[in-house]
Design brief:
The complex is a heterodimer of chains A (258) and B (336).
Chain A (H helix, E strand, L loop, with lengths): L1 H28 L3 H15 L4 H22 L8 H40 L2 H7 L4 H38 L5 H10 L3 H27 L5 H35 L1
Chain B lengths: L1 H28 L7 E8 L10 E4 L2 E11 L5 E8 L8 E7 L6 E7 L7 H10 L7 E5 L3 H25 L2 H64 L3 H53 L2 H8 L1 H23 L1 H4 L6
Parallel strand pairs in B: 1-7, 2-6, 5-7
Antiparallel strand pairs in B: 1-4, 2-3, 3-4, 5-6
Helix pairs in contact in B: 5-6
The chains are: A mainly alpha (258), B alpha/beta (336).
Chain lengths: 258, 336
C-alpha cells in the first residue's frame, strides 16, 4: 500500500517533470517554423473547432443549471436580478474555463497521448528522427500551439453560450424578465472577468497538450501502454487544471481583492 | 483543397469567437459606439464606493455613467461623467453619490440644489465643494447604508448595555426589596383609608357643633337687636345730649394737649439733631485722638510724652525741694 502511494507520487512528479521539459523543448523548437507551421492549423481545427460542440453543450447546461440554482438559493430578501450577476460572474470566471478545460482534457489530452503513444510504440517517432525531423517540432509544437490558441476560443464561445443559456432559463423557466437578467449581468460586469477566464483557458490548453504529448512520447510497450498513457494523460491533465485554477485565483484574484 | 478548407473553417471559428466575445462584452459594458456624449465633471472630498462605469441618474432616469475618477493636488476628487447629449440638466445642479441598493451598487444623482435631502453634513459638503474655478459641479456623498447600520449597531449596543445593567441592577434582592416596598405601600394605603374613615367621623361631629354654634350666634344677634332698641328709647330723655357736649369739650382739650405735645416733639427733634451733630464731632475728635493725630492724640497715644512729663514733674519736685532748702542759691536779693 505504502509502495503504491510512493510509486504514484513518483509517477505524477515524473509526468509533471516530463511536461515541463517538453514545454521548454517546444519553446526552443519554435524556431523550426517550416516543420510545425503546416501542421498547426490542422491541429487547431482538430483540437479546437472539433471541441466547440462539446464546449457549447457543456456551457448550455451549465448556464441553465446555474440560473435555476441561483433562483433556488436566493430568498425573498435578495433581488431576482442578482441571478444574472451570479450567472455572469460564475460562468465567465470559473465554470466555463474549468468545465470546458476538464472536458477537453478528456477529449484532447487522451487523443494526443494515444496518437503520439501509438507513434512511439510503432517506432514512427524514431523514423521521424531518422528522417532528420525534430519530433518536438513536428509533434509537440503544433499541438501545444493549438491548445494555447484554441482553448481560449472554445472557452470564449462556452462563456457566451453559458450566459445566453442562463438568460434563456431565467426568462423561460423562472419568473424573470429579460431586463432583470440583463441588469444583473451588467451590474458587476468588468472586462477583467473575460480576460481572467481566457487567460486561464490558455494556461489549461498548454498544460493539457503538454501532458498529453509527454505521456505519448514516454509510452512503452504495446497497445496496453498506449491505453495507460491516455489514462495517465487525462488524470494528470485534470489534476493540473484544478491546480492551475487555484494558482490563478491566488495570484490574480487575491491581488485584486486586496 | 482540404488544407484550404481547414484554414477557412479555423479562421471563421476564431474570428466568430472573437466577434462574439467582443459583442457580448460591449453589450454588458453598455458601450454605445458612435453616440454623442456630453462630458460633465464634479468635485468631491470623498467619493465613497463609486467606480468607473456606475450609473448617472437624473430624476430617477439613467442618463449616463461615471467615466473617470481622479485625485487632484488640492485634495479634491474630480469625477467626470459621460451624459447622453439630449439630457436636460436641472436649473442649479449638484451631484450626490450614494448607494442605489443594499448590494453595493452606487450611483451618481444629478439633482437640483433645492431637492437635496435635508442633511447638515451633505449641505456642508456641497457648500465647500461649490465655486470650483474649472466649473465643476459641487458634489457630496450621501450617508452609506453601512454607516447607517454602524450607527444603528452602536445604538443597539447601547440599548443592550442598558438592558444588561438593568438586568444586573434588577437582581433577586432588588426584586425582593421591590416586593417589600409594594407591600409597605399597600399597608400604608390601608392605614390612610382607616384614618380617613376616623377623621370623617370627627368632621361629622365638628359639623354638628358648628351648626349649634351658628344657632347660638343667631340667638345672640337677636338679643343685641333688642338692646339697640332699648338704647333708642334712652336717647329721648336728654342724657345722651349731655354726654355728647362733654365729649366735645374733652375733645377740644385733647386737641390742645396734642398740639403742645407736638411742639414738644419738634423741640425734641431739634435737640436730637444738635446732639447727633455734637456726637459726630466728638466721634471725629475721638477718632483723631485714637489715631494719634493732634496734640491730644499724641498725648494719649505716645508713651514718651507721659514718660517725659513724669520725669519733668520729678525733676520739678526736686527743684522745688532744692529751692526751699537753699533759696539763696536761686534768689539773690540785693538792695544796693
Amino acid at each position: 500500500m505504502i509502495e503504491l502511494v510512493g510509486r504514484s507520487a513518483r509517477e505524477a512528479l515524473e509526468g509533471l517533470g516530463s511536461a515541463g521539459r517538453i514545454t521548454i523543448d517546444a519553446v526552443r523548437a519554435l524556431r523550426d517554423v517550416r516543420t510545425w507551421g503546416p501542421l498547426a492549423t490542422d491541429q487547431m481545427r482538430k483540437l479546437g473547432v472539433g471541441s466547440i460542440p462539446i464546449g457549447v453543450l457543456i456551457a448550455s447546461f451549465m448556464g441553465i443549471v446555474l440560473a435555476l440554482l441561483a433562483s433556488y438559493s436566493f430568498t425573498n430578501s435578495v433581488p431576482r436580478y442578482l441571478v444574472g450577476t451570479l450567472v455572469q460572474k460564475t460562468v465567465m470566471m470559473e465554470l466555463a474555463p474549468v468545465l470546458t478545460g476538464l472536458a477537453l482534457a478528456g477529449r484532447v489530452g487522451a487523443s494526443i497521448a494515444a496518437e503520439i503513444g501509438t507513434m512511439r510504440v510503432t517506432e514512427q517517432v524514431d523514423a521521424l528522427e531518422t528522417l532528420a525531423y525534430d519530433p518536438i517540432a513536428y509533434l509537440v509544437v503544433p499541438r501545444m500551439l493549438a491548445g494555447l490558441i484554441m482553448f481560449p476560443v472554445v472557452v470564449g464561445v462556452a462563456m457566451m453560450v453559458g450566459l445566453i443559456a442562463g438568460w434563456w432559463a431565467s426568462m423561460g423557466l423562472l419568473d424573470m424578465s429579460s431586463a432583470q437578467f440583463i441588469k444583473g449581468a451588467r451590474l458587476f460586469f468588468d472586462s477583467f472577468d473575460i480576460n481572467y477566464g481566457l487567460v486561464k483557458a490558455a494556461s489549461f490548453g498548454v498544460a493539457v497538450t503538454a501532458v498529453g504529448c509527454a505521456c505519448g512520447l514516454e509510452t512503452r510497450g504495446g497497445s496496453e501502454g498506449v491505453g495507460a498513457a491516455a489514462t495517465k494523460a487525462v488524470v494528470t491533465s485534470a489534476v493540473l487544471i484544478l491546480v492551475l485554477d487555484a494558482f490563478w485565483a491566488v495570484v490574480w484574484l487575491l491581488g485584486r481583492a486586496t | 483543397m482540404k488544407k484550404r478548407s481547414n484554414d477557412f473553417l479555423l479562421g471563421a471559428v476564431i474570428l466568430g469567437a472573437i466577434v462574439l466575445i467582443v459583442a457580448v462584452s460591449m453589450f454588458l459594458r453598455e458601450s454605445d459606439l458612435g453616440a454623442k456624449k456630453r462630458s460633465l465633471s464634479a468635485r468631491f472630498r470623498d467619493v465613497g464606493q463609486v467606480q468607473v462605469g456606475n450609473s448617472v441618474v437624473i430624476r430617477g432616469v439613467k442618463a449616463g455613467k461615471v467615466e473617470a475618477i481622479e485625485l487632484d493636488a488640492t485634495g479634491w476628487v474630480h469625477v467626470r461623467f459621460a451624459l447622453d447629449d439630449a439630457v436636460t440638466m436641472p436649473r442649479d445642479p449638484v451631484v450626490l453619490l450614494g448607494a442605489s441598493s443594499l448590494f453595493g451598487e452606487w450611483q451618481a444623482t444629478i439633482t437640483d440644489r433645492q431637492s437635496v435631502p435635508n442633511n447638515r453634513e451633505v449641505a456642508t459638503m456641497l457648500a465647500n465643494a461649490a465655486g470650483a474655478k474649472d466649473g465643476a459641479l459641487a458634489g457630496a456623498v450621501l450617508p452609506d447604508v453601512a454607516q447607517l447600520t454602524t450607527v444603528a449597531g452602536g445604538i443597539a449596543g447601547d440599548v443592550a448595555s442598558v438592558a444588561q445593567r438593568f438586568q444586573v441592577a434588577f437582581n433577586d434582592s432588588a426584586a425582593r426589596e421591590l416586593r417589600s416596598s409594594i407591600r409597605s405601600v399597600s399597608q400604608l394605603s390601608s392605614d390612610l383609608a382607616r384614618t380617613v374613615r376616623v377623621q370623617s367621623k370627627n368632621l361629622d361631629t365638628i359639623g354638628v357643633d358648628v351648626r349649634a354654634g351658628a344657632a347660638d350666634l343667631s340667638r345672640a344677634a337677636d338679643k343685641f337687636l333688642r338692646s339697640v332698641a332699648r338704647l333708642d328709647t334712652a336717647t329721648s330723655s336728654g342724657e345722651v345730649q349731655r354726654i355728647v357736649r362733654e365729649s366735645e369739650r374733652a375733645a377740644v382739650q385733647l386737641r390742645e394737649a396734642s398740639e403742645r405735645l407736638n411742639a414738644i416733639t419738634q423741640s425734641l427733634q431739634k435737640t436730637e439733631g444738635h446732639l447727633r451733630g455734637v456726637m459726630g464731632r466728638a466721634d471725629s475728635v475721638l477718632m483723631k485722638v485714637d489715631k494719634g493725630e493732634g496734640t491730644l492724640g499724641l498725648l494719649v497715644n505716645d508713651p514718651r510724652l507721659y514718660r517725659n512729663a513724669d520725669s519733668l514733674l520729678v525733676e520739678l519736685r526736686a527743684l522745688l525741694a532744692d529751692v526751699k532748702k537753699q533759696p539763696k542759691r536761686y534768689f539773690g536779693i540785693r538792695i544796693f
